[in-house]
Write a structure and sequence with these properties.
Rossmann fold, Dienelactone hydrolase family protein, six-stranded parallel beta sheet, hydrolase, hydrolase activity, 16% strand, Dienelactn_hydro, 6 strands, alpha/beta, EC 3.1.-.-
Length: 193
């Protein structure tokens, strides 16, 4: 069993995010799903991004509080905007076991970086190859995969152009691709125990 903290995307802690967490639980893992929006479910990605801008640094403070009483040996996972939270914690909170980065990726060098990628930290990155949001982050995802190296990093691209394709509660859901993301994520978690 691996312990995971899964951060939601800009549409909030939707039923689809919770269902994905349940899929990881069904594979035998403990999954924590903090609600960084305190129950607010924005009706669009744009509205969610506006809420994130309004909350500012409070999002990171909420995430830090959410993991404060959890063990250090976590896998950090996050969807889209939640990916940035997960990646920050994976790179900066000592003890991380791995990172599952969905539909986004932050550079590991340059002004946006949280710092260097930790030596020996495994990572999986998942995104749709036609997703306009993920397309902006694909160079960072490739950089991270190259930096971590083939023994530790996997980058998976899925056909389609939908953002948030893993969320079963949204119209952008792609059941086949989401099932493959879940399968690959569960395999990753089994390896990093």
């Amino acid at each position: 069993m691996t312990e995971v903290v899964l951060f939601h995307h800009a549409r909030g802690c939707t039923e689809g995010v919770r269902a994905f967490a349940d899929g990881l639980r069904a594979a035998g893992h403990t999954v924590h799903v903090p609600d960084l929006f305190d129950g607010v479910l924005p009706d669009s990605v744009e509205a969610g991004l506006a809420l994130l801008r309004e909350l500012g640094d409070e999002v990171d403070r909420r995430a830090d509080r959410a993991v404060a009483d959890l063990p250090a040996e976590l896998v950090y996972a996050g969807f889209s905007a939640g990916e940035a939270v997960a990646q920050r914690l994976a790179q900066t909170r000592p003890g991380a076991r791995g990172a599952l980065l969905y539909e986004s990726c932050i550079p590991v060098t340059g002004e946006w970086a949280f710092g260097p990628w930790p030596d020996g930290l495994p990572v999986q990155i998942h995104g749709a190859d036609g997703d306009e949001f993920f397309a902006e982050d694909l160079p960072a995802a490739r950089e991270l995969a190259e930096t971590a190296g083939p023994d530790l990093a996997e980058l998976f691209l899925y056909p389609g152009g939908a953002h948030l394709f893993t969320d079963s509660s949204l119209p952008t859901y792609d059941a086949a691709a989401a099932a493959l993301v879940l399968e690959r994520s569960a395999a990753f978690l089994a390896r990093v125990r």
